[in-house]
C-alpha cells in the first residue's frame, strides 16, 4: 500500500459521512462580513481554503456539499440538517443528490 492509498484509507474509514457547508465567500458574499471575529481571511483566501478542504474529502463515499445557491442561511441550515438526517436514516425532506465518479489520475492539480 503506498502513502496515497493510506491517506484515502484514513479519510474513508475515519468518518461515516462528511458534510461540507460551502463558505459564504462563495455565492453569499454579502454575508461574508468581518464583524465576525472568527473571520480573518479575505474572500479569495476563504474561497481557496474552502476549495482545498472540499478536495481533501473528495472521493469519500458519503461526501455531501451544501452550497449557497438559492438559499438564505436558514435554508442552508435546513439543507444541512436534511443531509444529516438522511445519513442517520431518519425521515428528511425529499431531495436529489448527484455523485460522479472521476478518475483522480485525470485531474491536473
Total helices: the number is 3
Globally, the shape reads globular
Count of folded domains = 1
Class of secondary structure makeup: mainly alpha
Name the helix and strand elements from N-terminus to C-terminus, one letter apiece: HEHEH
Beta fraction of the residues? 5-15%
Helix content: 25-40%
- Could you tell me how far the N terminus lies from the C terminus, measured between alpha carbons in angstroms? 22 Å
Strand order of the largest sheet: 1-2
What's the total number of strands? Answer: 2
Q: Low-confidence parts, pLDDT < 50 over ≥5 residues?
A: none
Radius of gyration: 16 Å
How is the main sheet built? Answer: 2 strands, parallel
Overall pLDDT score:
84
Walk me through what this model shows.
- The protein is mainly α and 109 residues long.
- It has one domain.
- 39% of the residues lie in helices and 7% in strands.
- It contains three helices and two strands, in the order αβαβα.
- A two-stranded parallel sheet has the order 1-2.
- The longest helix has 16 residues, at 73-88.
- The radius of gyration is 16 Å and the shape is globular.
- It starts with a helix and ends in a 21-residue tail after the last helix.
- The model has no long low-confidence stretch (mean pLDDT 84).
